[in-house]
Amino acid sequence: MNNQQKDHILNFLEKGIRFDGRKLDEYRKIKIEKGFSENAEGSSKVSIGNTEVLAGVKMSVMEPYPDTPDEGTMMINVELLPLSSPNFEPGPPGIQAIELARVVDRGIRESKTIDTKKLCIKKGEKVWSIIVDVCPINDDGNLFDASALAVVAALQDTKMPSYNGKVVDYKKKTKDALPLNLKKIPTSCTVSKIGNHFIVDPVSEEEEKVEARLTVEIEEDGTLCALQKGGDNPLTAEDIDKMVGIGIEKSKELKKLL
Asked: What pTM did the predictor assign?
């Protein structure tokens, strides 16, 4: 981004608005579609403005880890395809994909969204494994919040496949199939700092100017369950306090969408 464009963004922020007309703490239009894929146990498509993300849930049976013999597992994978942004390259997951997966995973894990003990089939022998694949199809900024919404929506949409003790039958998904047991529905709001200003839901041009960001993970009752700092610049205690406050307030809007 050239200096003229940077100054343009900062000049608007000084006036309390964004160059696309939004307020500093205003999200673009958010749309959540569940049941996007028939081949997944659960799926969703989330749009925040022009940013679009798909999420799909697949379940399988595996042996539990030795230290958690009565608990199932969950893993989140992110694939950043070149078709969604010219900044992404083909090949194995890079730093951006790994960070995105870890931030989204932390919100689900720390809020204890999934009752992993309910995923136990036979202690020490068989448990359910949940893998959530996240794939942005267009990146126009704020993949963190879009991906977090997509994962939670896909988990809400998930139906348990049938298992007879030997074989998992993925074809027997009916209206009577049991949903995945979710204990909580967390929301994730990423607050970004540009200069002395704090904004939510940056578009790609704004993201290039972001100096630091803080992803705030909130449980349904407003409890703070996780924080993840990103960006090159440090944050003061005052910055963090302001950003957490914004995240808690905006999470109320996001919660209604889920």
From this structure: 0.93
